[in-house]
Amino acid sequence: MLFSRAVLGFLGLFFTASALLLMFLSLLGGARNSNPLNQIYLLQVDTSNIPNAAATSRWTFWNICDVNENGKSQCGKSYPDFPFDPPSHRNFGTTENIPQAFIGTSHYFLTSRFIFPFLIIALFFAVVSLFTGFLAMCTRVGSYLSSLMAWIALIFQIIATCLMTAVFVQGRNKFNANNQTAKLGVKTFAFMWTSVACLLISCVLYCLGGSVGSKEAGYSGREHRRRGFFPSQRSASVQSNKEANP
């Protein structure tokens, strides 16, 4: 057999751990002014013509950050599930030089606020899948349980990543159309989409690990039932009959 349950379980565990690392990096970007978290952000915009804003602003899941001369984020106080809503008091608190598409709508606020809870749910089930992954290396039940947890994590991670992509790509386009240079945070988007791929691979590996050896096990059981519970006594009886009637 090319791949044993232990090997498939270990590979599933590896990809689950990889997905978790990338998800945590994406989530914690901007939470602290330390490397590499000060290089991870969602959207960077030239906001030099907006009152109460820095020359360049970066949105993260926790706040809006300034950018220093080294190109690193300088973030203040953190607020979980920080919204992307430029004209509101939560961001700049003004409509001056804010693209018209952001004014009078709650689309960006609501969409950006849903990313955080979906990501947290995905992290929870991915962590559960990581711990049950140790059982997946030696038991079929552990493999299928890890696969189930990874599938649930994958679903919520896809939702969070799609929402993030939709709202911040739209935001970038609106700022660029308003002659305010904007770009996406490449690291965050790469981490989030790569974690989706890692979770998908781990789901498949756990499922394969659960199916390993199932046919052989079922065949042995049928053979045992055909032989009966007392094969040795029956064999001895047949042998004695043959000796009595040569």
From TrEMBL:
Organism domain of life: Eukaryota
GO biological process: cortical actin cytoskeleton organization; endocytosis; fungal-type cell wall organization; septin cytoskeleton organization
InterPro entries xrefs: SUR7/Rim9-like_fungi
Segments of this protein annotated with the region Disordered: 216-246
Bias (Polar residues): 232-246
Keywords associated with the record: Membrane, Transmembrane, Transmembrane helix
Statement: the UniProt record of this protein carries the keyword Repeat: no
Classification via Pfam families: SUR7
Stretches that traverse the bilayer: 114-136, 148-169, 189-208
GO cellular component entries: cell cortex; membrane raft; plasma membrane
Coiled-coil features, chain-numbered ranges: none
Protein name (database record): SUR7/PalI family protein
Lineage of the organism: Eukaryota, Fungi, Dikarya, Ascomycota, Pezizomycotina
